[in-house]
Amino acid sequence: MIRLDGVTKSYMTLSGRKFVFRDLSLDIPEGVNVGLIGRNGAGKSTLMRLLSAVDLPDSGKIITRGRISWPVGLRGGMQKNLTARDNVKFVCRILGVRRSRMQEKIRYVEEFADIGEWFDQPVSTYSSGMVARVAFGTSMAFDFDYYLIDEVMAVGDATFRRKSRQVFNERLKKSKVILVSHNMDLIRNMCDAVVYLDGGRATVYNDVHKGIAAYKKAGGEP
Amino acid sequence: MPQTSTRTRSHFQIQRDVIYALLLRELSSRFGKTRGGFIWVLVEPLAHLMFPVFIRGFIRQGLMPGVEFPIFIVYGILPFLLFKAICLQIVDGVNSGQGILSYRQVLLMDVFIAKALAHFVIQAIVFPIVLIGLAMFGYDVLPVRPVELAGVIFLTVMLAFGLGLLFAAITSLMPDARAIIKVMFMPLYFMSGILFPVTRFPDAWVQWMALNPVLHLVELSRVMAIEQYKPIKYLSIEYPVALALTTTVIGLMLYRMRYLARVTR
């Protein structure tokens, strides 16, 4: 269950305080994959930040039950002067995963990322593709009830993309996804419901096509 | 596919796990930054020690009866470096923690606590090494009141933490203030009587200099460590304690009111 209850969120800008949401209440549809759509600046990313608890609302509550991932493929969370192995260990520790289960997770990410000896080199020496592989592998190593995905997952070469897609589809049998994307084909393919954001308001469509139609009618890109 | 158990942790357990993870991350990234990273951690206090000792070697002037110069320096820079490191790390923590806060288990306060602990641990490793080095040169390094000295170190950590939170709140509201806070630390080295006893100054000056809480920490540290040390007459333990308590309380309140988190984003 993910519910927003009277959430207000603003940011300070050079020209004063700008409100993204004022007193927004919303139930994210349960048990289905949800797409967040809306024009640039409609608050999709802000909503994602609130859901992942990176950012806190000015007022109001966000009530969640179940395990929610960090934004899948998060790269900023990696400490650049540590190795991939140490970074995975760090994630294990904050999630309370220890000893043999920690070793299991490390092995999983090592195999998934498939970057050979680089796994034990500092992340700062990696190519961007290698960072993405480790980051995505780390997200896939743990079970979540909801995976948060901002923008497309298309990273790395064709083989890696195929593998990611395969692993992710496997995950989706048990877990649900909350996806932000401007790619309507992706939304149609992956999602069962849509939350359409516009002017600080959120409308839930349990029919993806209707949601996309509303977005297009309001002038969103095709 | 590895399975994660669904056991739930209490808030306290999560915070403990997170602080432990952050502490290890902080320490290993500091010690492993470059090849021989550990050597570089030792270089800072050694440089602080060697420079004045080297200069003084040419002057050969009596300092205070019964007080050896390197010991005087060491017990002065101990609280000073600890204070400076923790304070500045917390101010920077507001930003350096940005990526890491994407993990929902990690709170900004955990980052602050881990940073303060990490610097405490580093000094707890580095200073005994420096003291052992001085002992090998025949200096009498052992503090005369070790328990009280530990208390002064604890007070230093608290004051640095409280002031760090206040400064972090200020830089959150006004990002440009960061530069001013950094600049403030430069005269602090001279204002805190690291190189020579401030008792050499005219009394009217010392009265004003006693407003600087770090001077009290430095003097207290030396009083606890060195038998014949004569501190300034305005030395007070109540002043830094009261300041540590008030800044920590105000800092925590500002944190609670989210002044530290809101604006950096």
Mind sketching the topology for me?
The complex is a heterodimer of chains A (222) and B (265).
Chain A: E1 2-13, E2 16-28, E3 34-38, H1 44-51, E4 59-64, E5 68-71, H2 84-94, H3 99-113, H4 128-141, E6 146-150, H5 158-171, E7 176-180, H6 184-190, E8 193-198, E9 201-205, H7 208-217
Parallel strand pairs in A: 3-7, 3-8, 5-6, 6-7
Antiparallel strand pairs in A: 1-2, 1-4, 8-9
Chain B: H1 11-31, H2 37-59, H3 69-96, H4 108-136, H5 146-173, H6 177-191, H7 203-209, H8 213-225, H9 238-256, H10 259-262
Query: Helix count of chain B, per DSSP?
Result: 10
- Series of H and E elements of chain A: EEEHEEHHHEHEHEEH
Series of secondary-structure elements of chain B, N-terminal to C-terminal: HHHHHHHHHH
The biggest beta sheet of chain B reads: none
Number of strands of chain A: 9
Our measurement of the CA-to-CA distance between the termini of chain A, rounded to an integer number of angstroms, reads 31 Å
End-to-end Cα distance of chain B, whole Å, is 36 Å
Question: Structural class, from secondary structure content of chain A?
Answer: alpha/beta
Main beta sheet of chain A: 6 strands, mixed
- How many β-strand runs of chain B? 0
Estimate the helix proportion of chain A, in percent. Answer: 25-40%
DSSP strand content of chain A: 25-35%
Q: Strand share of the residues of chain B?
A: under 5%
| Major protein interface | A-B, 36 and 33 residues
